[in-house]
Amino acid sequence: MAPSFFRQVSRRRKQAPAAVQAPGALTTKAVRRDKRSRGVALIIAIVSIALLTVVATEFAYNSRVDLQLAANQRDEVRAYYMARSGLALGRLLMRFQKQVDQTPIPNPMAMLGQLGAMMGGGQAPGAAGQAFQPQSLNIQLWKLARVDCHMLKGLVKSEGAQVEDDSGGGTRSRLENDPVDVDPNFQMEDGDGAGGAAAQMASQMQRRSFGGFEGCFLATITDEEEKLNVMRLNTGGAEAQATAARMLDMLGDKRFEFLWQQDDANKVRSTPEETLIALKDWADEDPSQSALNRQDPTNPFAVGFADEGSPYSRYEPRYEVKNGRFDSLDELYRVHGVNDRFMAAFRDRLTVYPDINSKPNINTDDPIMLGLAIMSAADPNRPDPRLTDPVFLNELISRIRAARMFSFFGMSVQDFLGVVEQAGIAVNPLIKGNVAQNRYLGDKSKTFTIKSVGEAGSVQKTLTAVIRLDDGLGKLVYYREE
């Protein structure tokens, strides 16, 4: 029995697990398995933290982007309505300008003459001075006033409630940051104390002032009738002859010779005469190309035999002549001979918005346009060679500006002709004989461009409108948002 018992015990020990065989000791394989398990857990933890960091960072970034987009949209709306405010204020100013233009000027000589006639002195001696006296004011109010947000804030006042002034006696308007006193015992009719306090606070809070807006705007006004009206080339009379002559004088100026010495983007080169004819043909109604005749005193354009669309057949893509009125000044880009260099030089001196019968205003500040006005006032039958001398022309322009500064009622066409005559230049008899009804020069305008720039935060909005004065705030001729 004993040997058999010992053999069974020995067999059981061999079949027992290693833990039983060696308590408290681990095999090399178990140690390696435990270390590998701890490394995987660490990697999982690091990857989880990295993913959470990326998600949190992306969420924070998207939140900031959304907030900035919302702020930009808010500022864009503010900037747009700031620009609208500048546009409306500019139109209101032009309404006042029309009233100033219609304000009559009393003639002191005529009044003295009437007084002498009433006293038995015979015929009124002021009749001679009647012809030289301007009939209405020529003050350009839009040049004297700065249309911006500060002007609007100065026109309005706070609508806040009156509170006691802590610094002394009297009252003052409640400011936006002033504390509001609330009676804790105030009760509404339904007994709701909290709602009553809120209603009391709402009733005592200051209403926001009309001038307390955020952002700013600046509106600039330019006179479109101080420029050369391209549409006057199609009047078919003396106006077309005068406009064509002045436009050729401007395009052919020595300072702009380089414009005609290079090809444009379509490998096409033109001349001032060709560009002038193309401008005329773009807006006329016939399909034939016009011919230029400078010697014709009534109409410098004659009907030719060529196709007026032939220059545009060389462009890619090809297009046809409009044969209609220009819709905007940017439409000049479609005319043969007009490119970026042309518009950079003459954009501020050409216009298409005024009426076809409007006359160039002599109250311009542009020296080139003043020089063209002087040439229009000169007698074409007795040309003065001094008008081609830039030194003489600049001196005459300085005299005109000095006379304008000392003219209390503003410079009229008669005053302009007087300065030209004092320089020894013969004046066109068609203008001098009928200053009020002449078809060459004017001293008042009806078409203006208002460019209003609104700004709020980092956003700017630009609105451009061309208005023609009427009995209201002006007829809208052109409108553009940028």
From TrEMBL:
Q: Which keywords fit this entry according to its UniProt record?
A: Membrane, Transmembrane, Transmembrane helix
Q: Where is this region: Disordered?
A: 160-183, 286-307
User: What are the transmembrane regions?
Assistant: 39-61
| Superkingdom, taxonomy of origin | Bacteria
In terms of InterPro entries, this protein maps to: GspK, GspK_central_sf
Q: Spell out the Polar residues composition-biased ranges.
A: 288-298
Q: What name is this protein filed under?
A: General secretion pathway protein GspK
- The species this protein belongs to is Corallococcus soli
